[in-house]
Amino acid sequence: MTILDSLRPRPGLRVLVTAGASGIGAVIARAFQEAGAHVHVCDVDRAALDRLAADAPGISSSAADASIADDVDLVFDDVQGTLGGLDVLVNNAGIAGPTGTVQALDPGLWERTVAVNLNSQFLFARRAVPMLKDSRADPCIVAMSSVAGRLGYAFRTPYAATKWAVIGLMKSLAIELGPHGVRVNAILPGTVEGERINGVIAARAAATGVTPEAMREEYIRKTSLRRMVTAEDVAAMTLFLCSPAARNVSGQAVSVDANTEYL
């Protein structure tokens, strides 16, 4: 295998992407499929699953809430049935959570953010690890964190707290699973173009009393490269971390954020 060949994931990988029917998750799922992987996704949005099935019929799927243990168990029943095992888990499920001052936050929204952004990572890892230990294809977990997992993020404390926690979970699992040949890394996307960030920008603009246009410019000014990133940028890094070229990369929090300097 040449160095250039090693930059692509091995064909035939069995891959599970959580929240994989739309957004970053769908781009990652399709990228793995294009690379020759067998891909299964789960998502809470049934309409998005239907759209993905129409656009990428080779990707199998399960309808599930990633924060509910019983739903996660059903996903793994489907994974065993469709893929026959697992080589890669992309723990991508996450929500933006509420925006506001800490004293005004609804505790229920805090708990929901923790459930989706953090608990789901644990629930999927605990079920995936036995399958990954049986893999002979350089198995790995990619945990989706955020640039908010390395920087403070005023008015977005539930989101930032969970994304920092994902880094702690990732680094601990990398140590725990390394002797079994399972690699674990995290990706920290910055401001990703799309509908989700548009909503975040609108909410933060309202919370701070500026226009959405001014808030968007502020986000861009915070990056050294003066631009947002794309879902394709994140997918490319995911594929690299699951490729032979990254066989000795584990326990790392890799930013894909145009060098965001502050939030």
UniProtKB/TrEMBL annotation:
Species whose genome carries this gene: Ramlibacter cellulosilyticus
InterPro entries listed in its UniProt record: NAD(P)-bd_dom_sf, Sc_DH/Rdtase_CS, SDR_fam
GO MF terms held by the record: oxidoreductase activity, acting on the CH-OH group of donors, NAD or NADP as acceptor
Entries under Pfam families matching the protein: adh_short_C2
Gene3D superfamilies named among the record's database cross-references: NAD(P)-binding Rossmann-like Domain
Family of the protein in this entry: Belongs to the short-chain dehydrogenases/reductases (SDR) family.
Domain of life of the source: Bacteria
NCBIfam families linked: PRK12826.1-2 (NF009466)
Protein name as catalogued: SDR family oxidoreductase
